[in-house]
Amino acid sequence: EVQLVESGGGLVQPGGSLRLSCAASGFTFSSYWMHWVRQAPGKGLVWVSHISTDGSRTAYTDSVKGRFTVSRENAKNTLYLQMNSLRAEDTAVYYCSNGLASWGQGTLVTVSS
Amino acid sequence: QAVVTQEPSLTVSPGGTVTLTCGSSTGAVTSGHYPYWFQRKPGQAPRTLIYDTSNKHSWTPARFSGSLLGGKAALTLSGAQPEDEAEYYCLLSYSGTWVFGGGTKLTVL
Q1: Distance between CA B72 and CA A61 in Å, rounded?
Q2: Is the minimum CB–CB distance between B52 and chain A shorter than 8 Å?
Q3: Which of A86, A99, B47, B87 has the highest CB neighbour number within 10 Å of its CB?
């Protein structure tokens, strides 16, 4: 059974940093492009980033470019999202997905003073 | 960045058929946008129903189907069930990035 478990969310002040993790199991992690998607309170889904199977290719939505960095450790079956210079508008539940097939339950990031 | 448009809300009768659409500000949606469709219920993780225009996962109910229709991606629900009441999101690929539509709130009533 595919399992994706996000962690690392929490309350952070504007301008601060957080690193999200996504622990994967039940599938061959190294064979899948991995994605981060977020949903702000009362808003729709927003695609945030993806990373290729070997980590050599990444892409980001415009609003997070230069602030967020996606990475992965295939040996640990783990996906990461380093979030810097956080803004109030980054407040959301962040989900990871394996190739846009299965999804984790999400981790809540709240950016507030 | 492209804008992806969906109907804000639709209503379907139990047992009825409804088609949700997904348009692109850049022009016609094609198979090259690799359209995806997701179902979202409150308090639950998204569930992927359709990928690459019309392909289903093993968990996708047979009553859901995907297609291209009139320059848009389309999700058709045939024989709506009460449990299909949810938000539905499409997702399109644009040269290596992805953009979600704003979602369609589907009511089964």
Answers
A1: 22
A2: no
A3: A86
Amino acid identity at A42: G
Q: Does B20 touch chain A (CB under 8 A)?
A: no
State how far Cα B78 lies from the chain centre. Answer: 13
Q: What percent of chain B has pLDDT over 90?
A: 96
**Tens of pLDDT along A98-107?**
999 999 999 9
Residue with the two structure tokens 């089964």: B108
Euclidean distance between CA atoms A21 and A24, whole angstroms: 10
Strand order of the β-sheet with B64-69 is B4-6, B17-24, B72-78, B64-69
Q: Which residue of A35, A47, A52, A96 to mutate against B (max B Cβ within 10 Å)?
A: A47
Quote the CA–CA distance of A64 and A54 in Å, as a whole number: 22
